[in-house]
Amino acid sequence: MNYIYSYFFKQQQQQQTNNKTTDKMEVEQKIDDALYSRQLYVLSHEAMQKITSTNVLVVGLTGLGIEIVKDVVLAGVKSVTLYDDEPVRITDLSSQNHKLVKRRSDACIQKVVELNNYVRINSHTGELTEEFLSGFQVVVLANQSLSTQLRINEICHRNKIKFIASETRGVFGSIFNDFGEGFQVVDTNGENPASYMVSAVSQDKTGVVTLVDEQKLQLQDGDFITFKEINGMTQLNDLPPQKIKVISPYTFSIGDTSAFGLYTNGGYVTEVKQPKTVNFQPLKTVLEKAEGLFTSDDFKFDHPYTLLAGFQAIHAFNETHKHFPRPHNKQDAEEVLKTAKEFATKLDIELKEKLIEQLSFVASGDTVGLAAVIGGITGQEVLKAASGKFHPITQLMYFDAIETLPTEELPESEFQPQNSRYDAQIAVYGATLQKRIENLKYFLVGAGAIGCEMLKNFSMMGLGCGENGMIHVTDMDTIEKSNLNRQFLFRSSDINHLKSECAARAVKVMNPSVNIKSYATRVGPETENTYNEDFYNSLDGVCNALDNIDARMYMDSQCVFYGKPLLESGTLGTKANTQVVVPKLTESYSSSRDPPEKSIPMCTLHNFPNAIEHTIQWARDLFEGIYKNSADNVNSYLTNPTFIDGLQKQNSHVRLETLQQIKSSLLGKPLNFEQCVNWARLKFEELYNNNIEQLLYNFPRDMITTTGSPFWSGPKRAPTPLKFDPSNPLHLNFVVAAANLRAYNYGIKGDSNAEQIKKWATDVIVPDFTPKKVKISTNETEQQQQQQQQQQHNDGDDDQTDKVLNEIPHPSELAGYKINPISFEKDDDTNFHIDFITAASNLRATNYNITLADRHKTKGIAGKIIPALVTTTALVSGLVCLELLKVIQNKPIDAYKNAFLNLAIPFFAFIEPVAPAKNKVREGWQFTLWDRFDVEGDITLAEFLDHFQKKYRLDISMISCQVTLMYAMFIDKKTKEDRLKTKMSVLYETLSKKPLPEKKYLVFEICCSDMDNDDEDAEVPYVRYRFRD
Known about the structure:
Blueprint: H1 5-9, H2 15-28, H3 33-51, E1 55-59, H4 63-75, E2 79-83, H5 104-115, E3 120-123, H6 130-133, E4 138-142, H7 146-158, E5 162-169, E6 172-178, E7 183-185, E8 195-201, E9 208-211, E10 224-228, E11 242-243, E12 245-248, E13 251-253, E14 268-272, E15 276-278, H8 283-289, E16 293-295, H9 303-321, H10 330-347, H11 353-362, H12 368-387, E17 396-400, H13 423-429, H14 431-438, E18 441-445, H15 449-461, E19 470-474, H16 499-510, E20 516-519, H17 533-537, E21 541-544, H18 549-562, E22 566-572, E23 575-581, H19 602-606, H20 612-639, H21 643-647, H22 652-667, H23 673-698, H24 729-745, H25 754-763, H26 780-792, H27 795-807, H28 833-847, H29 855-862, H30 870-888, E24 898-902, E25 907-911, E26 919-922, E27 925-927, E28 933-936, H31 941-952, E29 954-961, E30 964-968, H32 973-980, H33 984-992, E31 1001-1010, E32 1016-1018, E33 1023-1026
Parallel strand pairs: 1-2, 1-4, 2-3, 4-5, 16-17, 18-19, 18-21, 19-20, 21-22, 28-33
Antiparallel strand pairs: 5-6, 6-17, 7-15, 8-9, 8-14, 9-13, 10-11, 10-14, 12-13, 22-23, 23-24, 24-25, 26-27, 29-30, 29-31, 31-32, 31-33
Pfam families: E1_4HB, E1_FCCH, E1_UFD, ThiF, UBA_E1_SCCH
Organism: Heterostelium pallidum (strain ATCC 26659 / Pp 5 / PN500)
GO molecular function: ATP binding; SUMO activating enzyme activity; ubiquitin activating enzyme activity
């Protein structure tokens, strides 16, 4: 069954027009960086060039086939040809308005065309002959008969055509790869080559390399590395890639170094990735020998062999009866089991009979969740076949989600078709569960990549389509061009429109029965009047589709507070994870988190960079400081009467620096673009010559530390000042970008005329620079000490502050004037933002002899772009839907699976969620994060204390609400007496000096002792105090 058809059927564009467009694109042979930007950070331009040259044939266009088509088309292959001569059936449609005589491939081609104008979409009729197949680099079969798979695979293997066959049978799926003999994998994992700083190399028959102890070695025995910038033992710099043997986390050995010079200092080793050759066997051989089985779940290590026999058995049944086993028909299951046993005997494998019965019961069914899982993985395998990027599945993988199946014994009638679009899902889960799905009320937070996939899945499985069902979706973002590569519900005409509204309209087309309400309101404390108690109490659950930790943690806290299940997921390129949070059953999302990212030390950024990431971050900070913060400070000075008073709260150094910025911005105001160029030329001199001269004045190249070692060694690289060269494109690019950004600050029309800018920059008279005696910190400790000294000795700074303040024009002299602050925007290629950061970073990298980064890499790091693939997103959304089916059925904890995966390797891990930690109050009384005290009605403090003493035998010694201390045993007698008579709500208003929230409750934290345990301190949960109905 195809749940996705409904979206792809309605024809809106002329195919011929689109084909003409794609013809033009082919001639240009250029990758659209704006469209594919997030994907390029995963695959690289080289891999994308191969992908955009690949012709793909997809045979079989039920749900799985269309899912594969969607992913591959969005990924940007050269062409996709659709083949399915079967007529559309009612279970393929979103409504019954379409003609059922239409061929599937004809029915969906127009909507597929809309997905990506760069991809040519064709439809084929007739036989799949060897001559026809030879026109493709990759052939994909989706839910085809085994005989068809064997026939087509034999042709493809003989003609060196990459072949993939995928199936979804109820809750069971399979993927088979045959990329031929000698397939080259150019990059097995997609990780950036590791690089390490060297601290020592021994002169020996087996040379030992020791690394600086800032970064542990992540390489393995047999990996290859190269050397660069080694001093003393310079012969290493000229060696070809060397194979290593790991000795410890900081040392490894290479070949004979005894004849080389003595190592003195410096240098780097960099991993060199080696291509891998993989040989594939035809499907017939794999089935006959039961070899090449890939395990998708280590906890189900014995399932693949059973399913190898089981899938052949259901195909044999289909060949005999012209249909797959009927839903939950025991007679058919017995026949399948008998055939499976024959295959098992032939293959000499042990059979799990219960698994075979489950396979037979659901083989005729289909679910959108499994189609998304298998389709997403298959789509990635197509990209691997096209590019050689990442390691393919070798060779046959089975997947199952039997934990989602109903555990109670249900009659066969429960799973019979009802002439409904959901019949294929009913065949798996039954009509009763289908009704529950349709009447669910879910809150989807985010309508981006994962959000689009979830909305598609929800609407196709019928969630929110019943009389009482509803999907709430919120997203405050608008659609950008880069979204179109993964967020398939959107089209070019949707750019700059709200994601939530466009997505809601799109799924309404897919399934007109869906009840959906869109919002453009951020989730957070400030919107709890919108998403209030009534809102959450109306929900059956929440599904996150977010891209930041703070929002995830907030939604997690809301789900814990209101006792709602939460479906959580995230992706990073080929990597992804899912987590299911079930009230009372599992820990919450916030219970365990990854450690925070390691920040770059300030002294490294300011003076001692040794990696391109350091110079990019420096350039990003420079952009923010010059073009935004300075403008904001000027505008605040001019418009905020209390701005100067606020500065007094800052330390004197910050105060002086801020006022000097304001003075420079106002007194140095340019009158025309030429003056902007002059400023940019002088800024070049300041940043890349003067500051470097000053640094070398403080720390000469030959400086020796107190320990006798060179100062400029290890992570410290001695810089070289730059002399401005107008003929150097990098130098000129900096001036062009810097001048145009300054022009925007001051409302002056910019210019990109490189020749004119070069002439102006050349004519600038640059003052001579003489280094001064200043203190420069060499590490974080020195920097902190220097800041403390500045705070203690601020008299000089105060004098200077007063002097600078007197030199700045009074705000009244500049009434109505403002400077335009610039907010960083990475995705506009015409605004000079990335141009400036790229040039500024690469100039600093040139100072320090660091390998430069191109604009693409700089944009990714400076913009903190999260690499993304539609294949990973589709897979994750499918896994989330499988967990949702378990939540609906109130499954035990061992049925749920948190997923951790990496499609590049490929790697799949499915782990049972962790139960919530239990905290002991007293013997026989424990609580978890899901527990709390509920106090109903607005009562006095005395009544509140008495309530806990009598009901819980707890003596409260302290009560707080957020930062307000409402009660403590140590307060004076008079105050205590007054508070005891006061209602808790009034007490909060009085002490916090805030009005009561519009919510119906307050949250109290209490400290107390156990009256039944010698008044020992007791750890207890929080109190939800409901003060209004």
